[in-house]
Amino acid sequence: MKNISFISCLFLLLIISACTNGDNIENGNKPPEGDQQKLLTVAEIDAQIKESFELNGTFDWKDTSNQLLWSAAIHGNNILTVGYGAKDESFSFEKSNRLTSIKQEIINTIKTTASVTAKSTEDILVYEDETLNYIDVKVSDLSTVAALRKNSLIRYLEPNGYVYGTTEIQQKSSSGCSQSGETISSSDYGTLSTGARVPWNFYDHNINQAWAYSKGRGVGVGLIDTGVSSNQPYLGVKCDDYYGGRYIQKYGTYVDSFWPWSKKTDGPNDKCGHGTSASATIAAPNNNASQFIGVAYECNLISYRGTSDVVLNGYHERKGVSNALKALGNRSDVKIISMSIGYMWSIGNVKDAIKYAHAKGKLIFAAGGTSTSFTNWYGVIFPATMSETIAVTGVEEQSTYNECDTCHEGSKIDFTIIMERGNNHHVPVLGFNNGQSQYFGGSSEATATTAGIAALIWSRYPSWTRAQVLQRLKESADFYPNKNNSFGYGNIDALKAVRGY
Questions:
Q1: Residue 372 in contact with residue 347, Cβ under 8 Å?
Q2: Collapsing DSSP states into helix, strand and coil, what is residue 501?
Q3: What is the pTM for the complete model shown?
Q4: Pick from 173, 264, 185: which is nearest to 226 by CA?
Q5: Quick check: 23 pLDDT over 80?
Q6: What angle do helix axes 348-359 and 315-329 make, rounded to 10 degrees?
Q7: What is the per-residue DSSP string for 169-183?
Q8: CB contact set of 136 (below 8 Å; sequence gap of 6+)
Q9: What is the pLDDT of residues 193-209, one digit of tens each?
Q10: Interatomic CA distance for residues 466 and 362, integer angstroms
Q11: How confident is the model over 391-407, as a mean pLDDT?
């Protein structure tokens, strides 16, 4: 099937040969004497990351040696992302003198430990976030990394310019992209009286019956993905043709450049296809043109092109997603954020931005992970692992629960959506180009569907809080009040969610 969302890039772990694992600096260990000044190669760095996954099932830069962190920064354009402040002080609405002092101390440490003397702040500071408590700096010396790690007011140090498995990931991180139309089986949809087509899984979740009570009107859903196609009028000039009174807005925060200091974004338009499919799942309009309809077809959609594909492996992808989260967090008309994107391990500046949006009252849905079938052993990916997000995965259409062929499961999952049939067909959606349709699957489709159902609830109960909407989702799901260790509360009944019984 085309356009299965390959969010997790864990398949890369099988590519690189293993070598010695990094030493745990938190326990005071150092690389062997004589080797500690050696710049590790990309292959050596990747091998240590791979071994961490094999031994521990996870990876975190805080658990690596100074040597590994420094080497990764050097190979990533010398960029080090530094989260500062007290523990969990991810953001500040206004930078205090204390935070400004900590930031300056970090810069002074880099100046005094750099082998090249008289470095100016302009040479060091690549980016300073006005809201989140992090900066991107240029480093060149191992001694700088060692000194920064001694600062108790630094929350994290991450080489965000470094790309794990560089060659292979560039080839495979676009696996969730598709712009080709597909022929949709007539058994995979129903038809409304208007002529609009209803995807088969809407009937499994009683979404079509929920429309008698709510269609999502008045609720803003923010989508952070690869953007929306400029060639699809039903997610553009025709988004409001049938009923009126709704809007779709498109923005871009992704910078398509190898250089971290580049600032010009490449606009809001999708060049992948994944974001268009996710947008269509949530908000494709009712229509009389035999086009597929979205879950909350009267909601307002605010799309951000924050990334080029579904795997957040690049500096500008991480920064783009972080900036999109802040922008959506600041909008009073946005209540829900949907993110069918992710990565194998936690990313500090994205994590900070999620905490910011969550503090602003947003209900944030994140995909549990989708990859090739031979990496399904891996659990839920970031940011669905965070307590501030609601993790969703996809399951098959059958009487017993079974994750889709490429979906991840685990104790972090909160909800499931049926998105794969026995014939391996996924969910038909509005296509990338006008007049096209295509199949969309994985936890990406499941996440977008859940965000749409949440919009139906919030539209019917506009005075409700995030907690009340989430509670109603739980009450409508199969396993409630219990939670399954692999599938959370299970499949959602949209009719029960909006009606309440």
A1: no
A2: coil
A3: 0.91
A4: 173
A5: no
A6: 10
A7: HHHHTTTT------P
A8: 79, 80, 81, 82, 125, 126, 127, 128, 160, 260, 319
A9: 999 999 999 999 999 99
A10: 7
A11: 93
